[in-house]
Design goal:
The complex is a heterodimer. Helices cover 34% and strands 24% of the residues of chain A. By secondary structure, chain A is of the alpha/beta class. In chain A, helix 14 packs across helix 15. The longest helix of chain A is centred in the middle third of the chain and has 16 residues. The two termini of chain A are 34 Å apart. By secondary structure, chain B is mainly alpha-helical. Chain B has one domain: Orthogonal Bundle (ABC transporter involved in vitamin B12 uptake, BtuC). Classes of the chains: A alpha/beta, B mainly alpha. Chains A and B meet through helix 2 of A and helix 10, helix 11 and helix 15 of B.
Chain lengths: 505, 328
């Protein structure tokens, strides 16, 4: 019955039913994985399936709450990244972390530079070794230049060079190809295969199925923080994997109210920001919820920020209810009737040290001020009470500090803050990330209710069930472009996932 | 060829040239600025106390921290040494050692508060700047140590020469060379730069960030202690305000010398030359007939100019690298 094979001594690295929670949020419900020497293992799953948490546990960055972690059949528990590294585990993260001021060579060898007499660093040997490493990888990077200003692709290469120089037995690559060009990917694969042939164990996390099938020997699928299945690549296909990734009945979870869909309120045309997103065109009608799906890094939040004016854009136009909204001017966007509930609520959405009432009225202070100047606590409380009660923000007193609230209640305060501006169009970015199930349902109910009252809503979400359950229409972005527009009746986990990953349809 | 280019490109070279320019111009106006026994001595000795703490300060700043307490550490250690001279018969080398060790302890207090309590060093050392000085005032009151309290052979250090180089200068030079050697050639030294360049990445690398930062503060405290001992030897009198204001000169010297205030960049050579420039300018301006109240402004302009220069150089380097990549 146990999904993990019984013979543990054969595995280079094995996790069994590993659990990790952060407060009330379960990041990893049951992480199970077995890596073998001389094999490239793929780990796939939706955003939020628990892959990153799993990687961070292997890397020693997180300590699991329960479960087993075996290395060559022996139980281990890392309390630091240094211990994991010493045990022969190298992790190449999605966003490499290099020391920008130091040279490429120093970045590779930091903390374990070759030495000569008196413990002096042997710069010559270090330099030669760095060049040898880059030759082996087949890349040309000046080993003496500082890391600052290197492209993500080059930074990845340096991380890989570092892992190779460490002679790591287990290599974890967290979406290493996301920023590489075609040629670079081919080169990386050649290196990965040669490392496999040397008998190392590799874990390859990718959203690109073509890469998984081209490179890997075994694939493990995760969903909602749990292990789903492990299969040999030869014994499976894209359809099976996609089904395993999403496999659940989504329609029942998010009962969406019927709303009358009216005229276009938000009209975005040919919005382009060089290198970030390209030629984005879409409309949101009143009473409509438009889902914006895609993988992390597809450019969804960036589009939202540009539409709202937090960031600028190079060309294109944003029109709200017939009036052109000037670019790079959030205040004008707010006046026109736009509201944005950002992704990172602690950083961008809330004044953590301030009270609930202050947070709720921060966006409408001008309207509240008596004679345009003075804001009384009473007016602030009156205005905020309306929204707080409507959202059922559980706060005995409105003057409690927001920072002390749970994630769910914080999110509701942010929502209430923007709703108090009475927008025509509401943009919500990951409205339910990191909130418990109960509050999630409340947020969904509220969004649906607002649409019913005629508000247009653009909802960015990485959670497929949420998008499928809530949206009247789903826009799918991949690598800075809208790759599909799918109507509610045609939207399925498979169709959205295909458009988001670019899997051969 | 390569190493010659490195020298001419180095940030330190510019500051050294500025220093030489100041010396040459001032000497042209008044040859006694260099070509007299006193002038030569002052040139070499006056900057040395600030140079010592600037070396420690540079090591701290390279780790993306700052130590504002060094002036107060000088005060406490100088008064400790003076008191031991006055009331005990402990031989002077042991007194010096005790005072230096005291500086190390005060540095460790800073370092432990920062790495354990995880409070920014700016806040902690601003606190200890006042706390250490407060203890000093409480202890000293209106007393002072006079040169009659201090053994002659110890005071001799303040004026002694090795061939024709003052001993204080020799001591500072030895410290400078050791610190520079450590930062350039030893793994732990390179980690100072790594930590200052990106503390999060340093944690991810498994570097012992807390331990290195603690070490930086101990070094800074120790050098301030040494400066305190040399303060007694050079000036012969110690009151409760000894060394006050030195901390800002140390930070200023480091910044002028090209140590980036956000860490990761710079060298103790730069900080040392910065200290030479800063204190020599102070002596040169009166010789050049520049009015008193302009002198502070010149120092300020120097610091701001150094920061602007660094920014321009960084931008230029970034552009050069981009061009290189495009043509590659």
């Amino acid at each position: 019955m146990s999904p993990a094979p019984a013979d543990s001594s054969a595995h280079a690295l094995e996790l069994r039913k590993v659990v990790k929670t952060f407060g009330a949020v379960v990041a990893l419900r049951s992480g199970t994985l077995a890596l073998d020497n001389g094999s490239i293992h793929a780990l796939v799953g939706e955003n939020g399936a628990g892959k990153s948490t799993l990687v961070k546990i292997i890397a020693g960055l997180y300590q699991p709450d329960s479960g087993e972690f075996l290395l060559n059949g022996e139980a281990v528990g890392f309390s630091s990244t240094a211990q994991a590294k010493a045990a022969g585990i190298a992790v190449i993260y999605q966003e490499p972390t290099l020391f920008p001021d130091l040279t490429v060579t120093e970045n590779i060898f930091m903390g374990r530079q070759p030495l000569r007499s008196f413990g002096r660093i042997d710069r010559k040997a270090m330099h030669t070794e760095a060049i040898a490493l880059f030759d082996r990888l087949g890349v040309r990077i000046n080993p003496d230049r500082p890391a600052r200003g290197l492209s993500i692709a080059d930074q990845q290469i340096i991380e890989i060079a570092k892992a190779i120089s460490l002679d790591a037995r287990v290599l974890i690559m967290d979406e290493p190809t996301a920023a590489l060009s075609g040629v670079e990917v081919d080169r990386l694969f050649a290196v990965a295969r040669s490392l496999r042939d040397e008998g190392r164990a590799l874990l390859f996390i990718s959203h690109r199925f073509d890469e998984v099938f081209a490179l890997c020997d075994v694939v493990t699928v995760m969903r909602d923080g749990s292990y789903i299945a492990t299969e040999k690549i030869a014994d499976t296909d894209v359809d099976t994997i996609v089904r395993q990734m999403v496999g659940r009945d989504v329609a029942d979870l998010f009962p969406k109210q019927e709303a009358t869909i009216g005229d276009v309120v938000l009209d975005v045309r040919n919005l382009t920001s060089a290198g970030i997103f390209d030629d984005i065109t879409f409309q949101v009608r009143s009473g409509e919820i438009v889902g914006l799906a895609g993988l992390v890094g597809a450019g969804r939040s960036e589009v939202a920020r540009s539409v709202f004016g937090v960031d600028g854009y190079d060309s294109g136009a944003v029109t709200l209810a017939g009036t052109r909204v000037p670019g790079h001017n959030p205040a004008a966007a707010m006046r026109a009737g736009l509201a944005l509930v950002p992704e990172d609520r602690r950083k961008e959405g809330l004044v953590i040290g301030a009270s609930v009432a202050e947070n709720l009225t921060i966006a409408i202070r001008q309207r509240l001020a008596a004679g345009g100047l003075f804001i009384t606590g009473r007016r602030e409380n009156e205005a905020s009470r309306v929204w707080a009660s409507r959202l059922e923000v559980k706060s005995s007193a409105l003057d409690a500090e927001v920072g002390t609230f749970s994630g769910g209640n914080q999110q509701k305060v942010v929502l209430a803050k923007w709703l108090a501006t009475e927008p025509k169009v509401l943009i919500v970015d990951e409205p339910t990330r990191g909130i418990d199930i109960g509050t999630k349902a409340e947020v969904h109910r509220l969004l649906s209710q607002l649409a019913g009252e005629g508000m247009g809503i653009l909802m960015i979400s990485s959670e497929l069930p949420e998008v499928l359950g809530m949206a009247d229409r789903v826009l799918v972005m991949r690598e800075g472009r809208i790759t599909a527009t799918i109507d509610r009746k045609d939207a399925s986990a498979e169709s959205v996932m295909r458009a988001a990953t670019g899997a051969a349809a | 060829m390569n190493s010659l280019r490195r020298v001419t490109r180095a940030r330190e070279t510019g500051i050294l040239l500025a220093f030489l320019l100041v010396v040459i111009v001032t000497t042209a106006k008044n040859p006694a600025f260099v070509f007299s026994p006193d002038g030569f001595r002052d040139l070499l000795v006056t900057p040395m106390l600030v140079l010592l703490i600037a070396v420690g300060e540079a090591m701290v700043i390279i780790t993306r921290n700052v130590d504002l307490s060094v002036g107060s550490v000088i005060g406490l250690t100088a008064y400790t040494a003076g008191t031991l001279f006055k009331y005990t018969d402990i031989p002077w080398p042991l007194v010096a050692l005790i005072a230096v060790a005291g500086g190390a302890v005060l540095g460790a207090v800073n370092g432990l508060l920062i790495s354990i309590a995880k409070v920014p060093s700016l806040v902690i050392t601003l606190g200890t700047l006042y706390a250490f000085r407060g203890i000093n005032v409480l202890w000293t009151g209106s007393n002072r140590i006079n040169s009659t309290d201090i053994p002659n052979d110890f005071q001799g250090i303040g004026t002694a020469q090795l061939i024709f180089i003052p001993v204080i200068t020799v001591i500072a030079a030895v410290v400078l060379v050791l610190a520079a050697w450590y930062l350039r050639n030893i793994r732990g030294g390179r980690e100072f730069y790594a930590i200052g360049s990106d503390p999060d990445a340093a944690n991810l690398y498994g570097l012992k960030v807390g331990r290195r930062v603690l070490l930086a503060f101990i070094v800074s405290g120790t050098l301030a202690g040494l400066a305190g001992v040399l303060y007694v030897a050079r000036y012969g009198t110690v009151d409760s305000q000894a060394g006050s204001g030195f901390e800002l000169q140390a930070v200023g010297a480091a910044v002028i010398g090209g140590v980036a205030i956000f860490g990761g960049v710079g060298s103790v050579w730069g900080a040392a030359i910065g200290a030479m420039l800063l204190l020599t300018i102070n002596r040169a301006l009166p010789v050049l007939g520049i009015q008193d109240f302009w002198q502070q402004a010149v120092v300020g302009a120097l610091i701001i100019g150094a920061i602007v220069l660094d920014r321009v150089l960084a931008l230029r380097q970034a552009r050069r690298l981009t061009v290189m990549e495009d043509s590659a």
